[in-house]
Write a structure and sequence with these properties.
- By secondary structure, this protein is an alpha+beta fold.
- The protein folds into two domains: 30 residues; 155 residues, no CATH class.
- 31% of the residues lie in helices and 39% in strands.
- It is built from five helices and seven strands.
- Strands 1, 2, 3, 4, 5, 6 and 7 form a seven-stranded mixed beta sheet that branches.
- The longest helix is centred in the first third of the chain and has 21 residues.
Length: 187
């Protein structure tokens, strides 16, 4: 393939990508409250099954923000979007969206689930009071890593907000939520 053909292929794919993402109405991407509730319940069940001590750990939380599915797609410029819910005292109190953009070499799409656990009332209230909370700016999120067979209750956790990221294969390591923006939704 010549340089000119590669350039044309890149241009066609780029404009196709832009066309697809700009022509779908945002409402078609929005999930209903019932769909989000089901996804949140399934994600929390998975959390409890995959993380030793996870159920007891969640009982200590002041609030839990769950995004059952965040879709990330990119072709040089990437973006991700997902919808979820905040649970306080085992009840859903609000719905949120998360979005982030990225630049650099990337091609394809993937899905992940995110669980943010608020361990202090101050961290939870700060999140709830914000108009658009941005990870790394408005609050720091500690992503937890531990070894196989280790119980989360044995890990010395002192951070006010703790994040867990899951792929289809299980808990993901060495990721960041920095730059992700969380915005309250009306459902």
């Amino acid at each position: 393939m010549t340089y000119q053909n590669k350039n044309i292929s890149f241009t066609v794919i780029f404009f196709l990508f832009v066309f697809l993402f700009s022509t779908f109405p945002k409402t078609s991407l929005a999930a209903s409250a019932a769909e989000i509730n089901i996804g949140v319940a399934e994600t929390l069940n998975r959390f409890k099954q995959e993380i030793s001590g996870g159920e007891e750990f969640l009982k200590q939380a002041k609030g839990v923000l769950v995004f059952p599915s965040i879709i990330k797609a990119g072709f040089v410029i990437g973006g991700e979007y997902g919808e979820g819910a905040l649970k306080v005292n085992d009840a859903i109190v609000n719905y949120y969206s998360t979005a982030a953009a990225s630049f650099g070499f990337q091609l394809g799409a993937q899905s992940k689930s995110v669980v943010l656990v608020f361990m202090t009332n101050d961290a939870l209230k700060g999140f709830q009071a914000s108009k658009g909370w941005k990870a790394g700016v408005d609050g720091s999120v500690a992503l937890i890593e531990w070894g196989v067979g280790e119980d989360i209750n044995t890990v010395d956790i002192k951070d006010p907000i703790i994040g867990f990221v899951f792929s289809n294969k299980g808990l993901m390591y060495n990721l960041t939520l920095e730059g992700s923006k969380f915005t309250k939704l009306e459902k």
